[in-house]
Amino acid sequence: MTETHVTLGQVAARAGVSKATASKVFNERADVAPETRTRVAAAADELGYVPAVRPPAPGTTQVWVVFDRLANAYSATVLDGLLAEAQIRDAIVIVNEFGNVEDNRLAPGAPAWIRQAQARGAQAFILVTNPLSDDHVAACARRGTPLIVVDPVAAAPEGVMSVGATNWMGGVQATEHLLSLGHTRLAYVGGEPTSTPANERLAGFRSAIETAGLDPNAAVVVPGTFDYDDGLGCTTLLRAADRPTAIFAASDAVALGVLEAARQVGMRVPEDLSVVGFDDTFAAHAASPQLTTVRQPLTQMGRMAMQAAVEGARDGARVSPPVQLATSLVVRGSTARPQGHTDRRIPDPL
């Protein structure tokens, strides 16, 4: 049975509810139990049911955006670019956060959720650091809805436009800066092992070390999830006799955690430890000392994604090659030449 022949009544029968109840689910009525809503949505997804689309307001474009997490400086900076471009292009932006729900098929950004959003008037989708699959592409292709991904965690499937930064070059830029200052004991901290951007930054880190004639395998690599706590967990590393004198953090959030870890063990930044972040969010300016970091143009990435979403919705979705915007190193106060670090062990606090 093809999706064009599936009726609301068939969805209701599959879910074991009345047609009226199924209608309430697709019209976002509040008087439906959550478990019933989940059952109806799952039945619609299994059958390939596509509800009628609500027409958008004349002259506007409804763009639905899904962030992996909103409560961080990275997301706030990308969102700033998205909203700025949306205002220029008369787009309505509906922001969601990928969350934990009982049925992951209905989580924001999931293919079934995309179909529901289309029924509510979504004309384009932007997913920020969210995983993608061919099912996402198929869900959007049913109605020719543009799908754009910002900083994809893996290679974007065919049919999806991706907007990112030159992560490998950013890793090279950060590491060459530390090497030029005289650091030879380096660490890379906080990168998500399953993240393509994180692995590209790590590859750039190792490439720069090898180009300098050092052993890239001797560098310490501490995996993480791009979070503050990843950096904060470096206290044991910083107390070691052969501790690194410089850390390249996979994100500004990780770098801020490293700064706090250094403070807790009695180290001075940059006198005892140099730290480089990645992103150049507003948090990098607020750090003490201000953070040397690799700037990826997050605001521009958001603007470009919104531009592609609106133009695709108005002129017809079209396949575009991946876009990688250039990174640049911003040198501030968290890096310096190594001083008095050679064999000194940082003692445990009393």
From TrEMBL:
Keyword set includes Membrane: no
Domain of life: Bacteria
Annotated GO MF terms: DNA-binding transcription factor activity; transcription cis-regulatory region binding
SUPFAM superfamilies on file: lambda repressor-like DNA-binding domains, Periplasmic binding protein-like I
PROSITE patterns found in the cross-reference section: HTH_LACI_2 (PS50932)
InterPro entries: HTH_LacI, LacI/GalR-like_sensor, Lambda_DNA-bd_dom_sf, Peripla_BP_I
Residue ranges annotated for the HTH lacI-type domain, each copy included: 6-51
Keyword Transcription regulation part of the UniProt annotation: yes
Cited Pfam families: LacI (PF00356), Peripla_BP_3 (PF13377)
Annotated keywords: DNA-binding, Transcription, Transcription regulation
Gene3D superfamilies with a match to the protein in the record: 3.40.50.2300, lambda repressor-like DNA-binding domains
Name this protein carries in UniProt: LacI family transcriptional regulator
Organism the protein comes from: Mumia zhuanghuii
